[in-house]
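Anyone? Bumping this.
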Amino acid sequence: MIKEGGAVVVTNIHDIARLSGCSVSTVSRVINHQKYVADDKRAKIEAIMQQLDYVPNRVARDLSNGQTKTIGVVLPYANHPYFARVIDGIVGAGFSAGYKITLLPTNYDMTIERHYLEQLRGKAYDALIFTSRSSSLDTLERYRKYGQIVCCEDPGDERQLAAAFTDRMASYVYALKWAQTQGYQTMGVVLSRNNVISASTRVTRRAYQEVYGKLTDTNLFTGAVTYDDGYQAGAYFAKAEHPVDAIFSNGDDIGAGIHQYFVDQHQPPIPVIGQENLLSSRLLHFSTIDHHLEALGQAAFRLAIGTSRTHELIKSDFIKR
Amino acid sequence: MIKEGGAVVVTNIHDIARLSGCSVSTVSRVINHQKYVADDKRAKIEAIMQQLDYVPNRVARDLSNGQTKTIGVVLPYANHPYFARVIDGIVGAGFSAGYKITLLPTNYDMTIERHYLEQLRGKAYDALIFTSRSSSLDTLERYRKYGQIVCCEDPGDERQLAAAFTDRMASYVYALKWAQTQGYQTMGVVLSRNNVISASTRVTRRAYQEVYGKLTDTNLFTGAVTYDDGYQAGAYFAKAEHPVDAIFSNGDDIGAGIHQYFVDQHQPPIPVIGQENLLSSRLLHFSTIDHHLEALGQAAFRLAIGTSRTHELIKSDFIKR
DNA sequence: ATAATTTATGAAACCGGTCCCAGGTCAAGT
DNA sequence: ACTTGACCTGGGACCGGTTTCATAAATTAT
């Protein structure tokens, strides 16, 4: 019991026990609203807890219970609208379930991802949600035994990992086919990371293959994450030898950059299809795919606290503009 | 020591001590890279830790150390661009300092804020950052003794609270005076919460008073948080009996809504001054105040882990468009 | 009246670490 | 030879809870 200026600042369960003339076991029972405590003792203990303004120590309980009621959310960066929406879903669901959500930025660094996986081993989190990853699925799976691990992509076949993901393939194919019906013969593509580990990249290539055939290097711009990157992409396609009729972008803000480049050059803006249904596509009035990322976050959270090793598919909507 | 299919899954410091023939104290010294351990013992212990793939339990260390290296960030909702930028700053700074950042949504509910303050008492966090609040400063101050509390507004006079805030007053006055030089005789204002607890609301009123005189009800629209709210505000001012020459908005996305209403009605858009320098003001080309919210978040974090009861002022920039 | 439950309580182990302190070795200083 | 101080080591208290288990009283069932 630590005092400061006469007022009690910190108390523990032993103080309460001593002052109430009971044992810590009994106090613990009162704290946890368990049966088998005499009414008078319960009242007395509650009164003393009230009086000393006692609050049980969260960390001690976590240690004893072997769980922290905390979920770690692994993401490259927090300020990107894609992740912001997913986080929003996770945080909302987490709040309702009484869980704490901790943000774990990686900047796509595998070493840092490993660090968080080690923290999972150290019981710092009950589960990890990978909204994006650089490590292999094998690596993630290897840590599965230390806690639930949820990834936000289709892990395919028989994985031990839980997964919440959007139906990218279906929505991409739908969007691209719609573009064909609009008379767009050639379609440019803008991607973020051009590697096999990015689910978005992989699926975009597959969907493109199915609808437009092989994706050539000239029709592809990679490394786009922000509006300014999109602007660069716009410049690339504007100056291209064989211009494309429309561009399928990996995000609305990037799409806005593409659009804006043409506007700034006083050229007719090339039709763009974006993703995420952000304000930018609404303002510039181009089509987009809404992946319902809040729902994705909620699903990921449910999987994180559930023990069921399952998959959840979130349907996307194509918004024609 | 818990095994699963032959492989060791969980070990603790006692296992390491037993297997290495040393005491727990010595193992602890090795874990923490302390002096006074014989080279051969150190090597042996390290080898065994390696072999069993031992990771110290985070929660146990936290309990013993009396700190969690976790900062709670209190905010109304996570998906709003204002808070997204502040979070980004906090998370970045937290990562560099080896701290965990937990998001605590309140939806402006005082009861929920209280709940988080109680958690601070329960040692769940080392400090709390209030990016926004509904509780009074007195209330926050009352919990100050349980941990550092940082608020993101100017708390004025002699408060025990640490504070990181932007120079709203200066930037608002600057922006409004600039508007006057542009010939805008009457200025509408859009606010989020029209109560005295919102720093933004309070300062906007004061700045308006200083430049334009008394803020009348007819020149004010409140309750705006999103683009759609801004759209409503646009409708309000478009249909007003005494139209305003320009509108000072509490956010770029809201400003975009205002702007867009006029566009949709085929009316010449009314000049808007936004805040936060988001993509929307860039796309629609209206002036805005950049509060450098990432820097605000970083400052807030520094105050959260520092014991110095200080204030940090972040300068804003007015971006004329 | 006796056996079987249910209720009530506290001692003590446990969760998995940190750290103070006592005790011992050994080389340098006087 | 004797003090001094740096180096090593382990026992055990401590952080603040939860939970098992033994014990006993009060009910209920037979």
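Late reply, but here is one note on the structure posted above: Chain B is about 45% helix and 15% strand.
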